[in-house]
Design a protein that fits this description.
Non-ribosomal Peptide Synthetase Peptidyl Carrier Protein, Chain A; TIM Barrel; alpha/beta; 2 domains; eight-stranded parallel barrel; 335 residues
């Protein structure tokens, strides 16, 4: 790698594009696609410290990222420093992770009721305690993902970021919504908080929230001075968002959207990755959540989405895609 854009600890990151962790989405199958399309760093879906502690079979299978291009980060979550330390040590010893991330942003009740995710944002002292214990128990860099705060009355993002830095973490990522907002409202209205964070700490700051276009990414970077942007839902079924953003940041040129044929070719590759990871029984079912994104805006997409949603095997889905492409070509030829 030449001239990395920034470092997380000793790990060089080649550009300013980070794929956000997304539950049920950012597994090995999707991370491989995201790296292929130019994400400088990818972060896994969050993985339970308790699942690791009890060696839960499903949890351990989620730690398989063998073959995903580096660098990559594995995200863990939990509300207890002791089990987070043990989980982090297990991840370092048994996976290909270059970085470990702690989730302190998830707003889902089943996570927060266990003192994990965004619940930690209410107590900067606990944030420091957790980060310090985990950071000093591993040799690879530790990062933390947070939100603005629990709600509008509890906005401790600067205090939490300082605690994260003091505890020994190598970077902090922040989503500019509160836990109370979950995924509603407009994160863009609060991007200025990222500038506050950047001015408050010396470690890299990564911004997340409402980055829907390459132009949004540039606007966030220019407005806040942060080190990188974290792209989440905008990359679903649209890994070109990563490529186009990286290219736009580097050159100022906005690449066109890819043709339908290219989108479906990538959808097929993603499906194959899922089959390799989870087998032909589970993979087609999981792929159903991705297909609508790959087909967004395509002519006659609603019918194809419905057909994919009813398909049971990889073979059926590939046949649906091939038939669709043939019909598109026939239609174009007839014009």
């Amino acid at each position: 790698m030449t001239n990395p854009s920034f470092h997380i600890g000793s790990v060089p990151i080649e550009n300013r594009i980070v794929l956000a962790p997304m539950a049920g989405i950012t597994n090995k199958a999707f991370l491989s696609i995201a790296k292929q399309f130019g994400a400088g760093l990818v972060v896994s879906e969050m993985i339970s410290d308790k699942g690791i502690e009890f060696r839960n079979e499903k949890t351990l299978s989620m730690l398989d990222f063998e073959g995903v291009p580096h660098p990559l980060s594995i995200q863990i979550f939990g509300g207890d420093a002791k089990t987070l330390v043990e989980a982090a040590q297990f991840v370092e010893a048994n996976t290909v992770a270059d970085i470990i991330d702690i989730n302190m942003g998830c707003p889902v009740p089943k996570v927060t009721k266990n003192e994990a995710g965004s619940r930690l944002l209410l107590d900067p002292d606990k944030v420091y305690n957790v980060v310090s214990q985990v950071a000093h128990a591993i040799t690879i860099p530790l990062t933390v993902k947070i939100r603005l705060g629990w709600d509008e009355e509890h906005l401790y993002y600067v205090e939490n970021a300082k605690a994260i830095e003091a505890g020994g973490a190598s970077a902090v990522a922040m989503h500019t919504r509160t836990k109370a907002q979950a995924y509603t409202g407009h994160a863009k209205d609060r991007w200025e908080a990222l500038r506050e964070l950047k001015e408050a700490v010396h470690i890299p700051v990564i911004g997340n929230g409402d980055i829907k276009t390459p132009e949004d990414a540039k606007e966030m970077l220019d407005a806040t001075g942060i080190d990188a942007v974290m792209i989440g839902r905008a990359a679903l079924g649209n890994p070109w968002m990563l490529t186009r953003t990286a290219h736009y940041l580097e050159t100022g040129e906005l690449l066109p959207e890819p043709p339908v044929e290219e989108k479906i070719a990538t959808a097929k590759a993603h499906l194959q990755n899922l089959v390799d990871l989870k087998g032909d029984f589970l993979a087609p079912k999981e792929f159903r959540q991705h297909a609508p994104h790959y087909l967004r805006g395509a002519p006659g997409a609603a019918r194809i989405k419905k057909a994919v949603n009813e398909a049971e095997t990889q073979e059926e889905i590939l046949a649906i895609f091939d038939q669709y492409l043939l019909q598109l070509q026939t239609h174009v030829s007839a014009i």
